[in-house]
Amino acid sequence: MSQTTTLVESSVVAQELLGASRTDTGQRVRRRGGGSRLGFLATYLFTVFLLVTLNFLLPRLMPGDPISALVDGSSPSYVQSESTRTALEAYYGLNRPLAAQYLSYLGDLAHGDLGMSIRYNVPVSQLITERLPWTLLLLGTAMVLSVSIGWVGGIQSGWRRNQPVDRGLLTVFMALKSFPVFFVGSLALFVLSVRLGWFPLAGAQTPFSDAVGLQRIGDIAHHLALPALVLALEFAGSEYLVMRAGMVSELGADYLLLGRSKGLRDRRLKYRYAARNALLPVVALTAVHVAFAASGSILVETVFAYPGIGRLTFDAISFRDYPTLQGCFLLLTMVVVTANFLADALSRRLDPRTAT
After folding, report:
1. pLDDT tens-digit profile of 195-213?
2. What domains sit in the chain, N to C, each tagged with a CATH number?
3. What DSSP string runs through 272-313?
């Protein structure tokens, strides 16, 4: 849209042609708008149903089961009696046919009941309510850092293509992109926490601390900084590369030449025009990164012992805690689907041509 606006400034003829084209496109969009939106919504509803079904099946496809984990001799909740095992299977409904369990799961889910955790013996909704704020804080901070680092770096690098700044940034971001998040997290934890002592080793806040107000906020931020930065660096490289490619593709555009001839400042051309026109693919990529960050948080929270949904998911996998796994997977699924839904909606807003 912004490129169309700047091209309008360069030619009256282009204005007439683009105006006619946009009028015709607008009429087609209005005619199709209702059906397109309904199809758009129906697609996502079907996706949610399919993912809910997979959410039920995947934990049960893993080797073992929750009761086997309980009767394991190395488990702290070791159960030796076979009659107790049978009673536990009946209590949690694991002795019923798979189809009956699935229908019961859908019915409970329709009423907002996520079940009872087999390991913790508390409602899964309670566990998620306690852990979710920490994960949202981690993901939100990481995505803000990722977007800030990647977008700004890509804009600067693409605008100065083949200059020392571009080569330096490209080397740094390519190096960061080459390492898996658990390796970067483990290395950062060892160097910055164990060796230098700059950051806490684990947790989201100091245990048994009586800090309040700004002191508590500072303590939480101190624990958050390192895991959020590690998770952000995992995605900043891709954000940088896509933004850089978009900026490079805009360097020879006619509207930039026109802007320079009219004496517009370099900063305005870079951010107001070139960066905005390069933004659309980066927005879609950011939504994908939100989905990957939700699953990547499992590794980061495990490395840093951060008490969020990711750590809860890891523990539930270890104990084959079906209800907790289903609740965590459902939450991650909704994050992914919602992120993609918002990305599609925002892409249609930024470029109406994608709605046709």
Report:
1. 888 888 888 788 877 777 8
2. 38-65+126-355 (1.10.3720.10)
3. IIIHHHTHHHHHHHHHHHHHHHHHHHHHHHHHTT--SHHHHH
